[in-house]
Request: fold
Amino acid sequence: MIRTHLRYHRPDTPDDAAALLAEHHGRVAVLAGGSQLLPRMHRGEVDLDHVVDLRGLGLRAIERTGGRVRLGAMVTYDDALASALLAEAVPLLPRVARGVTGGRQLTGHATLVGALCHAFPGTDMPGALSALGATVELHGPDGPRECPVDEFLLGAQSIDRRPGEFVAAVTVDGVARSGYCKVKHATGSWPIATASAIEDGDALTVTLGAVQARPLRIVIPDPTRSAVDDAVAAAVTAPWTDVLAPGDYRARIAPVVARRALTELREGAHA
Amino acid sequence: MTTTPTPPHSLRTAAEPDTVPDPPPGAPDLHETDGHQPLRRDGDLLLTGRARFVDDIAPRGLMHAAILRSPHPHALIRGVDATRARERADVEVVLTGADAVDLATPLPHFFEPSIVGCRTTEFRCLATDRVRWVGEPVAAVVATSLAAAEAALDDIVVDYEPLPAVLDADEALREDAPVLFEEWGDNRLGLFPFAEGDAAAKIAAAPHVIRDELRVGRQHVAPMETRGYVAEWEPGGRLTLWASTQNPHPLRTNLATTLGVPEDRVRVVATRMGGGFGHKFNGYGEEPLVCLLSRLADAPVKWIETRKDCLLVGAREFTHRFEVGFDDDGVVLGLSDRIVGNIGCLAPWGGWSMTFPAGMTFPGPYRIADYAIESVPVVTNKAPWNGFRGYGKEQAAMALERIMDLVAEHRGIDPAEVRRRNFIPPEAFPFWTAAKHLDSGEYAAALDKALALAGYDALRERQAAALAQGRHLGVGIGFELTPEGGDFAGSFVRGFDTSTVRVHPSGAVSVLTGVTSPGTGNETSIAHLVAREFGIAVEAVGVTQGDTDSCPYGFGNFTSRSLATGGAAAVLAARELRERMADAASALLDADAADFEFRDGAVVSRTAPETSLTFAELAETIYRRGLAAPGLDQPLLEVTRIDLPHNFHHVPDDQGRFSAYPSFPYSAHVALVEVDAETGVVEVLEYSAIDDCGVVISPGFVAGQLYGAIAQGIGGALWEEVPYDEDGAPAAETFKHYLTPRAPDLPSFRLEHQHTPSPFTLLGTKGAGESGVGGAMAALLNAVNDGLRPLGVHAHRVPLTPPVVLDAIVSGGAP
Reply:
């Protein structure tokens, strides 16, 4: 049960949103889909007096911007799955969205940007957006600010969001060729390890998610099995431990997940 | 398929009934399994979300309770300061353990440990001077809203002095371990030995011996609906408690004791249940606590268990250390298993005694003359256990089935064949073991049917073909014997139950019964049984359960006993009423009473079918003219009967054998899995099972129970666990931590059934509900290990999560 008296705000402009967030800093949360925030509030894990709902700001578009693709903060997994633009320009995102569990109740309102901001290691989006070289567009009392996703993600459930700021959108590179692998225990499990494989010209990278507190981007100089295994093993230095799996398990399967993502990149996704 | 063993010499006292009564003339064939059943009562309400559960109960002026729980696994309470909480405007009551001492007596145990020679102690509804597990209730708040009540908990300051804690059962058994209950001297609650012959000598002399270990982690029931209670006192001092409980009558008795209220002034209403499985056995401190809070608040009070609190309740944390001796043919010559159950802290809840069936169920379906099983319940600073479907019997299934596969592997014999060589044969029934008098069984037939259903030979071929491609398929057999219907004299866990049948003047029929439904549909089955006796439409029969104001005293829902007790009692009561009504028809229609049959809503002469009355006409006439018209001498159309399975043996025989369980359903399972040898992830590909619970009254419900049991067993085998962190707190607080199977995790199950009636129950039923959990756990355990065979490793740690499986692969399988 939410224990505090809550004030709900639905500002109409980014500046109003930033002003509210600044005014109530420390006692306020940004509400997008709410799929993480509301259960945590019900469990008494966060203690707030205000929520600022972003739905009045019209941040639900998926659009081209220059050579990149921009996703508003309110874009849901269902939106990503239905987007022709993403299917063509950034197929990794619908590929990841397909594997998100929780059913329609979740995919209809949970947002990609919300998952990024939650920054829980055992989720898909931080790793996938890191793989795509995402830029995080924040808006705060001093106006807009851009931040590379790898700088935005500071650690487990820790992001570079300054007082009064909220994330308005992320922009990602158009990446036509990608592969994804996620290992988890069962349908209800969060990801234990993910890998996004990206081919950009001659450069091959694998970005591991859920393996460490922050996504781990690894350049793959040579896609042979032993070279991938060596590169991943060398990169994984502080594997994440949680209630579902110890760090040494994640370290063990990280090369496997990386190889499988590369295989999907090479051969295409199987059913 | 029917076996007809003769009923044995009874060792029960003379007062107890001995055999199944003969059916009266014209009674329907109770052993008939016609495959038809009425639709589930209230199925439409459930499917459309209109069924009401305890959280839907909201009397006018309702207030809400929240409970402060210990953050320490072991600590002294030096003081509780609730001043600030009491000052909050929206707070009505704050109750501490010290306050409650004078308001409520110690809590009666669901099953008093001393009855079976175990140590015991007293518990209060709130801890007073010491806490022994994270989550133990320490204080409670009533406020005008749940939010306010929860918020007020932060304003209660408890001064704790932490004590050393012990979480592991083996460590708890060490001499230097912290002791939970100082008066005991150590942490051993008791010891349950089950032995016949001389296992040690037979194992020592056996040509082949395997010694190994199997560990099962702490698991949890995970009902969809958590517990909850709503208490309301009437101005005259009468208490009503709406409770999601499996035992409304014993709960009422215990509330009367604890609160010092005459029992007749307490009404317990067991609300519709969204899953019980043992989680809702009575004995929880919150039961009297919510009543007490309501009295103090002078208002109705509701408390609903949060998911996090629900997940505190544990089960199944066992270690088996077994030794088996066998011959060249895989015939087991001697078996021992020392079983240690980490029961968490003792509590008045109904869980610790799962350590009894965990040992008692041995040697399962197998004829092993020489065995020595010890089951040791050990207390630790984890939260207590309550019941969990399977109730320890799944432990025997897992250990025995793993042993059969290890023997098969050792001897190079097919695991199915090893089982055939060790099964108790059909002609041996009834069959005695140390603590079981087995009713009937066709074990090999059931296994062969399961193998055929699974296409076992083809599975082995597919397995070989897959291995050639580097894929690790595993085929696992699980055979489970499930003792059901247990009777523990001295407790309220009894083997009989009571039903009243009442025929109304309109011809409507009411059944009031002491057995309750956890959602299985037994109310529909009982209505069906009674309607069948009277030859009337099932819709004309109402069934009332769970309301202590209207139902006869009963013991509720546990150990898959509803139809063998309450259902059979209802049939007996209906038969007695039918005799009365036939006598009345005889007087009214001038025909022989024995000539009447009850069919199609009428009472009809067999020899002269035009001589008839409708059932309703006859009932109304008896009410209107009874004791006035000649021959209408018995106008009381209400009968209350008890019944029970007639196979209890409480007094040990000259060999010390006894049987607290009367019925022994069983099931055979075959699972196909694929083990991802690089990640340890196990995928369940195919699943087939045969069950035999004797006569089946409602095939759809029996199949539903088996589906659920298998799903729960697969979850327990592969994913479900509540780990504790190093601070002694449970680490699983939501269903993202405690992973139960979801639909995509399970294949379609192929189920078929075999029916070997019990000769000892009125209906020939043996009990359906629990059966299947242990078989599924065993089948998965064996399937995963079968998949690992080419890698030369075993994984003997359940649940077989990917880290556990990969660890076995990487480390070479040392347990």
